[in-house]
Design goal:
Length: 115
């Protein structure tokens, strides 16, 4: 299995994944279509998904599904929500969301420069 980015386009899509949050593990990236920081994060996420891994990230737009922001108590975009079998952790600070999508090849080349 590989990494996946899945865009949730309707409130009913969001309701479906919301019902699984007590038994499943997944991540949700909340973004705004007009926000420069969100655009940067989405670009990095599209690069990140090509790397090896098994994570699934749902994408939720503030314009298409604003109800989802209230459902997960999100007040800013971009925000990354980590759902781990009922435990929910929110990253809303831009640097931490940006760092989550750091590519392994980039981070390993940085380590080599620091040595």
């Amino acid at each position: 299995m590989s990494r996946q980015l899945i865009e949730l386009k309707t409130d009913s899509d969001v309701e479906i994944i919301s019902r699984t949050k007590k038994r499943d593990n997944f991540k949700v990236l909340f973004y705004s279509e007009w926000d420069k920081d969100s655009a940067t994060i989405l670009e990095r996420a599209r690069e990140w998904v090509t790397e090896e891994g098994e994570e699934k990230i749902y994408l939720i737009s503030s314009w298409k599904t604003p109800h989802a922001f209230a459902m997960f108590m999100i007040t800013s975009a971009p925000s990354l929500v980590h759902v781990d079998k009922g435990r929910i952790r929110v990253q809303s600070e831009y640097p931490s969301v940006y760092d989550f999508f750091s590519l392994k090849t980039r981070s390993s080349s940085r380590k080599g420069l620091a040595s």
